[in-house]
Specification:
The protein is mainly α. The chain has helices at 10-13, 18-41, 48-69, 78-101. It has a domain at 6-75: Helix Hairpins (Orthogonal Bundle). The chain is elongated, with a radius of gyration of 22 Å. Keywords: Ribonucleoprotein, Ribosomal protein.
């Protein structure tokens, strides 16, 4: 990605949960509003930033819509991953402890 926010690369967006995508979208829209305001008052230094933010917004909308349509996979919630990891670790430790007791 040549233009735009480096942290909003499409590969990064795949790892974001839906709530974080909506939050990033809100922040990008707020930044675009501020950039447009600066442009109107003649205070904008980087006109290319407006284009980059617009692309970020479009990218976020695309990922959200693709998830709605089932084209792009939604990542599993972090809590579920943590619980699965703890359960797996506990299951691995339990047989080892039983084997030592016998």
């Amino acid at each position: 990605m040549a233009i735009g926010t480096k942290e909003l690369a499409p590969s990064e967006l795949d790892t974001f949960e839906d709530t974080r995508l909506v939050e990033e979208l809100r922040k990008a829209k707020e930044e675009l509003f501020n950039l447009r305001f600066q442009s109107a008052t003649g205070q904008l230094e980087s006109h290319g930033r407006i284009r980059a933010v617009k692309r970020d917004i479009a990218r976020l909308y695309t990922v959200i819509r693709e998830r709605e349509l089932g084209i792009r996979a939604t990542p599993a919630p972090v809590e579920a991953k943590a619980k699965k990891a703890k359960a797996k670790k506990a299951a691995e430790e339990t047989p080892a402890a039983e084997g030592e007791a016998e």
